[in-house]
């Protein structure tokens, strides 16, 4: 195979730590062990770019895996070898338990179907993970014939073991130094190759989604969910690539196994592993009624209680599952948490603890074209680097450089911070390296999108507290406020036929001397308090003035507009989004006032409706100087009805027949009339 530029650079940057990924596939299916075990052997004997050395190493790997892995039906042969020779070496997953009757530990070796193998206390205490899910190791298994003759004797004993681990303590420093020799683009490609995928075969969205899958490995207490089509390799990373991850397959998840066993104090999976992944999450259920509540508490704080004692753990929680329909249909029939178990499906408190909803539909189905034949890091080295990065944080990179919009709650900001920190750790394993604005913005946009996807589903379930999902950010002190949407939602810049949530209004500004007509979306949320607060970082002057006048009109004419409700007892958070070149928000007073009333009444406006017109402090409606331009823009943006001041009626005689047949023009005399005609029936 001809080496490409990245292969040559990687061989120079990471000598002894790379392996050709097609070699791994040569052994896949031959031996009953995960990928990282095969790569451990390849990394030991084939970490070279010289074809002759690789071929020689392959023969060694073939020989050792053949001699030490137990295929189905060979169990008795290996036991016989142990008896004849006194000991035998095998590669197997080892678990252990405490036998209270004999006050000793017993090991289980599933490939030999042995569950009563003697093992010394020291070996168990040196490798505590064998008491939870177990791990793969090279094991020297001894046989004592004299014990075999005793009644109830246990002749097999673990004499020694070596965890499947190639890396050394300083591996992270070595990899961080090698990363400095690659560009960011090259390093992203190399990371993807290291988990066996060829970046050239993946779209940018698929590459980003795959990098997001890696965050739970590098970020403590990170909660990720991925739902999407079958066959996209959702559980592969958590099952095959790292010994620090544990896959819980569908079925019951016991509180004792996950968190702590109250009977013996044994710590559970979240204490023992960096990542605990629930596969086929729709089938998961807990053995105790409060299991989901314990899980929610852990996902929130990283702690759970055992009696009076509070135990802290750092294991990240990942949930993966399948859609039976495509994402668009799923959104039409419900929300994107639909495939979750019933006790989690509509629980907005559970959803609020999810830091990242990964778009599984952006990842292609696994096919041989996606696998790489190039060099990547040995999985064990990669896993060790990931584990080492967990003790670091990159949140400080955001301070003073990125400012988030007012729509983000405390939990939103925490989720976004953790995602950004994880992405930056993946990109820059050396914490002393400065992060350029481009890479920082890439991480921020991705983090806002995957968190907003969670908020959009909460909003669909109907909780008023999650109404405002318009996530935005500003990079730098004088940067422009940018909004981030989730691509699977309908086009953000066109007026859909569905009613917007209460408080949201499409409005058109007629523009002025220096500005043409423009479409805006006004978004209002209300809560107990007082006053109107604009969430935009630096709102334009004309819009600020429109908001001030709308607020005064609401107070002055509250009985006509909102009946018995007292607007002075409510705080309104106001946000303006522009969808055209027009930015000032000139003459949007009626739209703002209708938005305030809609939020206070909790009633949405008609779908496909757009409002035009300004208002004075005295309550009179300002005329529009170019109503035909306003109606034409509304039609272009997909509106089916436009609300305009009645003073525009004569000017609209010249409206073309084509536009007049596509858009319904509604006239209003004053603000209460506009509100009545705008509200959804």
Automatic annotation (TrEMBL):
Residues covered by the BREX system Lon protease-like BrxL N-terminal domain: 12-143
Residue span(s) of domain Lon proteolytic: 520-680
Keyword set, alphabetical order: Hydrolase, Protease
A GO biological process held by the record: proteolysis
Superkingdom as given in the UniProt entry: Bacteria
UniProt protein name: BREX system Lon protease-like protein BrxL
Residues spanning the signal sequence: none
GO MF annotations, alphabetized: ATP-dependent peptidase activity; serine-type endopeptidase activity
Matches recorded under InterPro entries: BrxL, BrxL-like, BrxL_N, Lon_proteolytic, P-loop_NTPase, Ribosomal_Su5_D2-typ_SF, Ribsml_uS5_D2-typ_fold_subgr
């Amino acid at each position: 195979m001809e080496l490409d530029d990245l292969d040559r650079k990687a061989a120079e940057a990471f000598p002894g730590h790379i392996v050709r990924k097609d070699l791994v596939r040569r052994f896949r299916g031959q031996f009953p062990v995960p990928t990282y075990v095969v790569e451990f052997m390849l990394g030991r004997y084939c970490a070279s770019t010289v074809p002759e050395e690789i071929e020689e190493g392959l023969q060694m790997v073939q020989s050792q895996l053949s001699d030490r892995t137990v295929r189905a039906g060979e169990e008795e042969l290996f036991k016989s070898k142990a008896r004849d020779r006194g000991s035998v070496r095998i590669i197997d997953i080892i678990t252990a338990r405490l036998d209270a009757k004999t006050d000793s530990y017993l090991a289980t070796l599933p490939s030999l179907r042995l569950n009563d193998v003697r093992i010394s206390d020291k070996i168990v205490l040196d490798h505590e993970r064998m008491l939870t899910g177990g791990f793969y190791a090279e094991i020297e298994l001894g046989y004592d014939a004299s014990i075999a003759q005793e009644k109830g004797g246990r002749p097999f004993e673990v004499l020694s073991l070596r965890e499947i681990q190639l890396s050394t303590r300083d591996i992270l420093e070595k990899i961080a130094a090698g990363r400095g020799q690659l560009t960011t683009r090259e390093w992203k490609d190399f990371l993807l190759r290291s988990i066996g995928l060829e970046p050239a075969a993946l779209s940018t969205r698929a590459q980003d989604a795959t990098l997001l899958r890696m965050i739970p490995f590098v970020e403590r207490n990170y909660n990720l969910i991925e739902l999407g089509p079958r066959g996209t390799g959702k559980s592969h990373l958590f099952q095959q690539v790292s010994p620090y991850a544990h896959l819980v397959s569908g079925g019951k998840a016991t509180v004792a196994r996950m968190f702590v066993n109250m009977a013996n104090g044994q710590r559970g999976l979240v204490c023992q592993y960096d990542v605990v992944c629930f596969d086929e999450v729709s089938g998961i259920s807990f053995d105790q009624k409060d299991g989901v509540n314990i899980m929610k508490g852990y996902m929130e704080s990283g702690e759970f209680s055992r009696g009076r004692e509070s135990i802290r753990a750092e294991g990240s929680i990942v949930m993966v599952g399948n859609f039976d329909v495509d994402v668009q249909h799923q959104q039409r029939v419900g929300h994107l948490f639909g495939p979750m178990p019933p006790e989690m499906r509509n629980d907005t408190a559970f959803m609020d603890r999810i830091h990242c909803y990964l778009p599984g539909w952006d990842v292609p189905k696994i096919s041989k074209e996606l696998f790489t034949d190039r060099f990547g890091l040995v999985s064990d080295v990669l896993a060790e680097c990931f584990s080492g990065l967990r003790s670091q944080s990159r949140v400080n990179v955001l301070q003073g450089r990125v400012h988030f919009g007012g729509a983000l709650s405390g939990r939103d900001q925490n989720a976004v911070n953790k995602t950004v920190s994880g992405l930056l750790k993946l990109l820059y394993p050396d914490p002393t390296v400065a992060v350029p604005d481009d890479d920082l913005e890439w991480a921020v946009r991705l983090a806002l999108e995957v968190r907003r996807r969670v908020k959009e589903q909460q909003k669909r379930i109907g909780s008023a507290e999650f109404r405002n999902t318009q996530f935005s950010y500003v990079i730098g002190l004088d940067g422009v406020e940018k909004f981030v949407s989730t691509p699977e939602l309908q086009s953000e810049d066109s007026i859909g036929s569905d009613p917007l949530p209460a408080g949201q209004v499409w409005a058109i500004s007629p523009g002025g001397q220096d500005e043409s007509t423009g479409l805006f979306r006004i978004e209002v949320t209300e809560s107990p308090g007082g006053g109107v607060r604009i969430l935009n970082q630096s709102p334009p002057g004309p819009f600020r003035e429109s908001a001030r006048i709308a607020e005064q009109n609401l107070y002055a004419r509250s009985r006509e507009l909102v009946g018995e409700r007292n607007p002075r007892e409510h705080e309104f958070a106001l946000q303006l989004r522009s969808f055209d070149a027009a930015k000032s928000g000139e003459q949007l007073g009626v739209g703002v006032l209708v938005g305030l009333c809609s939020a206070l009444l909790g009633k949405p406006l008609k779908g496909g409706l757009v409002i035009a017109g300004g208002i004075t402090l005295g309550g009179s409606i300002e005329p529009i100087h170019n109503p035909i331009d306003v109606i034409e823009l509304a039609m272009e943006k997909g509106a089916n009805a436009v609300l305009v001041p009645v003073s525009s009626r004569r000017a609209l005689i010249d409206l073309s027949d084509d536009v007049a047949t596509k858009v319904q023009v509604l006239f209003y005399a004053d603000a209460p009339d506009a509100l009545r005609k705008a509200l959804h029936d």
